[in-house]
Each structure stands twice: as C-alpha cells, then as structure tokens.
Amino acid sequence: MTRTDMAETPPIYITYLNRFDIEALAIDDDELLLAIEQGLAAQGRGEAVIEPRVHLEPKVSNGHFNVLRGALRAPIDLAGVKVVGDFVDNYQQGLPSELAMLMLFDPATGVPRAMLDASGITDMRTGAVSALGAKYLARKGSKILGHIGARGTAYWNVRLLDRLFDFDEIRVHSRRPESRDGFAARLSRDLGKPVRATTDWQSCVEGADIVVEASRLHEPTPLLRTDWIKPGALVIPYGTMSAVELSLTDIMAKIVVDDWGQCKGGKFGSLRADVETGKLSEATLHAELGEIVAGLKPGRQSDDETILFWHRGLSLSDIALGHAMLEKGARLGIGQRLRFA
Length: 341
Fold this sequence. Notes:
The protein has helices spanning 3-8, 19-25, 29-44, 119-137, 152-165, 177-191, 201-205, 260-263, 272-276, 289-293, 315-332, and strands at 13-17, 48-56, 63-72, 78-87, 98-105, 112-117, 144-148, 169-173, 196-197, 210-213, 234-237, 254-257, 287-288, 307-310, 336-339. The protein is an alpha/beta fold and 341 residues long. The strands form two sheets. An eight-stranded parallel β-sheet has the order 9-8-7-10-11-14-12-13. Strands 2-3-4-5-6-1-15 form a seven-stranded mixed β-sheet. Helix 3 (29-44) packs across helix 11. The N and C termini lie close together (11 Å). It comes from Sphingomonas abietis. InterPro entries: NAD(P)-bd_dom_sf, ODC_Mu_crystall, ODC_N.
C-alpha cells in the first residue's frame, strides 16, 4: 500500500486491553461461564471456524509457543489468533509459565479490531471449559474433587468447578511442596472452605468424583493410574505431556474432546498415545463438547458411566471471552484506543 492509498483509507483504531485493564473489568464467574458456554454452543451448531493449533519451538529453553486460530459468526463476528508461550521453567525467574496475546479481527475485511493480554484469558477460559465439561459430563451429586497441578489454569479449574458443584472435599497436588501448599492456601481463602494439599498422586485422585490432571511433565510419564479411578467418575486430563496410562480409555463409557481436529494430530496432549495406537479415533469418540452443549448429542446419561473429557484449548473460547471483555470494557470505559492506520 502506498502512502497515498494510506491517506485515503478511513482511520482504523484498535482497542487494547492490557493486564491491568483485564483486572479492572472484574469479570465474574457467571459472566465467564456464560461467554464460554455460548462459544461452545456456536461451535456445536457449526457457526464457527477452528483450525488445529500449531507450535513454534525456539529450542533455546524448555518451552514452546502455541498458536491458536479461529472465527465465530454473528453476533460475536470476530476472527482471532492467540499466541501463548508455554515455558515450564519460568518460575525460576519469577514469571508465569504461560504468557499470551490475543488479536481479534473483522472476519470479512481482515481489519484489526483489538489486542488483549491473554495470559489471564487463557487461565480463565481453560477453567471454564473444565467446569462446563463437568456440568454436562459429571454426576450431578459429585462432591469430591481431586486436582493435579497448580499452574495458572489450575486455580480457575478448581474455582469454577466448585462454583457449579460446591464440593465437600477438595484435594490438590503438585510436585513442589511450596507450590501445592500455596495453591491450597489460596483456594481455601478464596473459596471459604478447606482445601487439602496431598503429597502424592494416589491420595489426591483415588475415589474422587471429578479428577482433573493438569500436570507439568517434561516427558510422557504414566503417573495417573487407571485403577485409582472411581466407577462413575469424570476424568479431565489436559497436560501437554501425557500423565495417564494407556489403559485409561479402556474403562470409559464415553470419551469427549473439545475439538477432534486438533486432538487427532500434533505431538502434544494427554491422549496422544491413544490416538497414535488407534484406541481413540472418530469411531470411538463420543462427541465434541460443543455438540453436547448445543443439544445435538447426549452428555452423561447415567450415574454409572465413567467418562473422560480431553480438552486441548479452543481458540473459539479465547475469542468468545475476549469479545465479552471488550463489550464490558466499552460499557465501563476501560481500555485504550490506539491508532492503527
């Protein structure tokens, strides 16, 4: 584009929400769950485009970038790209393991609309997808939660799951004592109920009604044993590196994913070995969660079903939550308007 062409182009502005703006929005649990549920339903109805994530590995440290891409039709009417770093050793420098940016565009013209700090968005939407998976797939009377992992997404997993189920018992585990103890203390304070940090995986997950595995492993290691899973439980594994035994899928009445397109390919993910060996395929997959949320396929149908929900992270959830934040920011006058062209 020449300088003359640029002069004739109508002014283009983008909305920028940094981390402080995101915090000032104070999105509450119900607003968060509603935005993500609407995005899932749109996906289930086919009102979205989603492309499998791709990865960039700089190979200068123990980490990589995930690049997520998708688009949602009206009323949201946005396309989005999120780039999120996943760097396991960042805690050694006092940094979060996941830092992210979300860019939103007009899907009809490509005009940029907004740029948001998506580190918190990633944590929040991941927790919301875990919770909504449980809403449709866990037993209604679930009262014990076992949660492995204490990274950023873990807080929102537990917070939003407890919002829906009001657990009698919450157990958490993480490899480093200072991590799991601090995590349990923060949750106890924020939820107003005891949260117990366990020293091992088995005592955390055995007998739990809902099991979430969000570990941070350097390589696939089967630490979550199949025989610890209670009949009728919901298991939600989503670690980058698999922590489950290959036999875990054998005990499942239903296996549900967030998006089969991205679950069936790539080198990362909790059930990667199950896909590669053919144990998980289109034939053995029950549904994508969006199909269940949209009412096109059934979720849990009986208390004795043991169900697995594997989610890898949806660009559509980022877009839906980003849209909700932009709408609230416009109402409250929060955010910065930047000249783009």
